[in-house]
Amino acid sequence: MAAGEEHETQRVRRPSSKQSARKADAGRVGSGTSATKRAARRVSAPRAMRYAAEQLQELLGRAPESVSALKPTEDGWQADVEVLELERIPGTTSVMASYRVTLDEEGELLAYERTRRYTRAQIDPRG
């Protein structure tokens, strides 16, 4: 690596949707209902959290600090991801942002939006 070059973050490769579907179908005997097939394709909650953080980082170019909420939806997952937007000294004055990330059943990012900006030391008045 030449002087001044930055080391690029290593990306984690996941199987494509087609590969995941083939593996799920190979392990299934007989034909199931569409609800059964949908449930078989849905990624687990820990994976959904990881995928939300990874894909948001790829889009924003900033590493998420945490996933503060995750809930299943009819079509996949919805996650709230906390990101450091502007680092300041002291750290309690750094600007944070909360992003709402929508994933499909297989963990692919469908949409995201910034829902809130705040200083790190700020306490949420909503409790």
Write a structural description.
The protein has 127 residues and is an alpha+beta fold. It has helices at 17-26, 34-41, 45-60, and strands at 64-73, 76-86, 95-104, 109-119.
Compile the SSE list and pairings.
Elements: H1 17-26, H2 34-41, H3 45-60, E1 64-73, E2 76-86, E3 95-104, E4 109-119
Antiparallel strand pairs: 1-2, 2-3, 3-4
How many DSSP E strands?
4
Estimated share of beta-strand residues:
25-35%
Mean pLDDT: 78
**Cα-atom radius of gyration:** 18 Å
Question: How far is the N terminus from the C terminus?
Answer: 48 Å
Order of helices and strands: HHHEEEE
Query: Mind describing the biggest β-sheet?
Result: 4 strands, antiparallel
Query: Order of strands across the biggest sheet?
Result: 1-2-3-4
Q: In DSSP terms, counting alpha (H) and pi (I) runs of 4 or more, how many helices?
A: 3
Shape: elongated
Helix content estimate = 25-40%
**Low-pLDDT residue spans:** 1-33
Question: Which labels suit this protein?
Answer:
127 residues; alpha+beta; 4-stranded antiparallel sheet; 3 helices; 4 strands; elongated; disordered N terminus
Summarize this, please?
By secondary structure, this protein is α+β, with helices and mostly antiparallel strands. Helices cover 27% and strands 33% of the residues.
